[in-house]
Predict the 3D structure of the following.
Amino acid sequence: MEIKELTRAEEQIMQVLWQLKKGFVKEVIDVLPEPKPAYNTVSTIIRILEAKGFVGHTAFGKSHEYHPVISKEQYQNFATDKLMNGYFDNSVKRMFSYFVKKEKIDLKEADEIMKLIEKLKDK
């Protein structure tokens, strides 16, 4: 199944569903930050996510309990690949350089990355 890119609103709803594992629209709204979106807005976004194949549901009469069909890790892999291919010519070195130049990686994180690299070398 091909994963499609999410809008910011869709991704926000997916983050909540990944966190909850499953939930009704009201439960999703309860987790969202203030100002809370309208019930109908969240319901519409969830139905769009369902049409895109990200969400499934279990019916309880007229109510639906929604659950993720695409895991957070699957979407993370898709988004990372898109970022790497689209902005860094599929080069980890270029991406790492970018984050270093923008000071998005501190010395402690860089040290942890170096330790990970050393572990990979030892394998």
Summary: The first helix runs from residue 8 to 20. The helical segments are 8-20, 25-31, 39-51, 72-87, 92-101, 107-122. The longest strand covers residues 55-60.
